[in-house]
Here is the input.
Amino acid sequence: MSSYKAIAAVSQSLMNLLGDRMTEAATITLAPPDVQVDQVIGPRLNVYLYHLSEDPFMKNQEIPGIGYSGAYGHPPLSLNLHYILTAFGSSETGPDADMHAQQILGDAMRVVHDYSIISADLVQQKAPGKTILDPVLLDEFEQLRVVLQPKSLEEISKIWTALPRVN
Here is the structure.
């Protein structure tokens, strides 16, 4: 049974995956996209948790094979976490300033597509023996799944206008 630390562990697992498997050199950060991150200079990929919702398909479901119904109190809270990936290139003022950011974003999308399920046996290539999945999530029944969820222009506009410092 995951603890309250599971949400942060999912974010850390995504950062581990992207940092380990991306080929474009970029610092992976976890901050609101409208905030300049201290001491980070150069290309960056930002992972921002902007929304979470209860999984309607797993709501009030017991974990299969663990005890009997109601043996451990309330069923686990199953959540869907919604992230925005934002890429920043080396420069914001050059004639093709956004080109590098688009390459970073494309590389990140390749990684989450190729590794859409982050399981306990997925180990880091840059630090052999260390798992990509955060230790808080290692013995959980549910696997961490990454699913692209397209948004309408209206939904995207609402998200960006909610961020106070976006230019």
